[in-house]
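Job type: complex structure
Entries:
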Amino acid sequence: MSDPKAKKPVDDVTGTETTGHTWDGIEELNSPLPRWWLWTFYATVVWGIAYTIAYPAWPMVSSATSGILGYSTRGEVAQDIDAFREASAARDSQLASADLATLSENEDLYRYAVSSGAAVFRNNCSQCHGSGAAGAKGYPNLLDDDWLWGGNHEAIAYTVRHGIRNEADDDARYSEMPAFGEILEEGEIPMLVEYVRGLAGAEHDAAMAEGAAELYADNCAACHGDNGMGDREQGAPNLTDAIWLYGGDRDALTETITYSRYGVMPPWGPPRLTEAQVQAVATYVHQLGGGEADPAE
Amino acid sequence: MADTPPSLYVAREPIFPRRVSGFFRTLKWWIMGITLGIYYLLPFVRWDRGPNMPDQAVLADLASRRFFFFWIEIWPHEFYFVAGLLIMAGLGLFLFTSALGRVWCGYTCPQTVWTDLFLLVERWIEGDRNARIRLNRAKWDFHKLGLRVSKWVVWLLISVATGGAWVFYFTDAPTLAVNLVNFDAPYVAYASIAILTATTFIFGGFMREQVCIYMCPWPRIQAAMMDEGTLTVGYRDWRGEPRGKHRKGARAAAASTTTTAYAEADVPDIEPLGDCIDCMACVNVCPMGIDIRDGQQLECITCALCIDACNEMMDKIGKPRGLIDYLALDDVPPTEPGDLAAVRPMGTDAVDPAPTVSVPVEGRVADVPAGNPAPTIAVASTEWKPKPIWKHIFRLRTMIYTALWSLVGIGLVVALFIRSDIELTVSPVRNPTFVMQSDGSIRNIYDVRLRNKSGDNRLFHLSLTSDETLRIELEGRPELSVTVPANETLLQRVYVTARPQDPASSADRTDLRLWVEDVETQSRASSATIFNGTGVE
């Protein structure tokens, strides 16, 4: 059997050469793999080793081998961001100094402002105003047509840039409603609540409201106006419409009049956001549904 | 124990297919010419689509996400056309495989076609089978090197043309051709060409049958799709066996009239031979290097060249054609294969060349001695006829495949013709579901995508229909119309408002339909959607 030239064992049924191995009468057929498959396997091993040398691969104690090509996914992201910044640099500088009132005439820049403004909004504004800009109690809904400080491009951009009632920016929009709980007599506030509900056309006690007319004129009209239409110069809400920032029911109104409200918004102008980002987010907010016409030049 | 175990690996045995001519070879030349011609030339066919549109007849424009096929233009959202075509391709393959076996492998698979082309080059430069075997064995000298290098150069040129043609399908071909030559083309174009050149060169020149046998999943899949009624290339062993060299004088007799019993008993020197003369023609022409007479094999791509080779031999020795033929596995006479006595008339005198009459046996004409009063075994084979070809092709299975295939095809054609060149998709803004305005009216916001598939800027007018009173406005536009640039999709924010006194404002949901109309052509499209009210009656 040691003669290498001896005839190799052949399986009778298939006529295939066998390896000579037999288990319980079952013979193992010899179906040799083509050698190039083997070489392909070796090639993948070589490739794998070369790859781990070229690219970051082997875990070490505190980091990993960095690979001789110096590639990293983080580096790639940084590159992509730089490339994006470079690509949008021209538009950004154009946008930073653009007149927002006429921006929509430049279709390319306008679309850029809206889509980049949407990203700015989601990153910076949605925490309070909601990802859909619908706001919440105390945080204005930016989709409706009611604006405390004005809803044209310039007013929105100013609010974004300087914020409201904050200490950080001297140009922040500012006004303060007194806490009338310390000013008015007991029993006057419920009457005022009925009067305010009457202004808004809500269900109210007409007799009580009647009695509060003078109270309103003396204490409220200076800011909210004789007819309750509000005053945007002071961010005083319009009391006659259907929209209530803090709620229009009796409890909420009583609380508002007794303790007042003091909503704060941080300034988002530089250095927090770039001038282009402020312009972009103002453009985005303006086109959400409530944007008002810009004053003619 | 001193035995060295047999090697687990084996080197590739080179295969030197011989030139052959015949019906199937001619058919394959034609198919090769047509398919390669389409592949290489199609990118250069022009098709005028008007200004600002590519004028290449077939173009997969990845940059602007469009696929152009003559008059058809597919946008990304119409990808179901591609899915439909893939389903049709799948069903088509089922159909062809169950009717005709591995006909794809044998005639149209790129691996087969390019290998065939490379073999043509090889034969042209190095000569036919015997010359190539000699050359393979010869020592490396100037002559051999010259032949090999010229062969490789031609292969390489074909490969470069193959890789080059591929990239032309993805951008304007004439422009890219100029850029490629001037080294101005994008890196990815050169990389694609390089990779496809390498695969074509290696797969067509060196790997050949190894690709089919070891790399391709298709032989396994197709084997499962075939059944005993499928037409495939096969050898009629009941007719050919036992094979052997026919000796002069005995040939005619042995061919048709001998019987085992007779030969053994009375004429011992005349062997009971079948029609196969063991000339190896079928093996020598086989590009896969197999012997079809061993039966159905995974390696067989059914290229049918062995049929041509065998028919040529059968003609030469004066036997009927079709010893190797397209046949179905159930296509044998109702006897055990090898029990040849049953299919051959018995009791005839082999030595005496008796006058014969022609009786059709299994599609061929067998010479049966006339005046044979009573064959001891009634010749089953003279009554037996193979199923006609159409019965193999028109079976329930293939007809079901055909019906499914046609159904998908008709669906796609209908979809192609009813699609409009303007379209809109409406995605209602649901964050928030509605917005209350100062005057108490309820507004819903919709992001409407307007698609203008024509080559001109067009003015679209938007409107809505609903049972309830609703008002429509467009963001940033005083009118209800908007210009959509040519060949673009425009996102328009649309507001639908219900006044406080309108039922829709307090209803939970109200149905409405948004319409877009091309102001010039009056063609319209619409999409149904929902208006959300406060839900507080």
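Summary: Residues 160 and 249 of chain A are 30 Å apart (CA to CA). Chain A has eleven helices and three strands.
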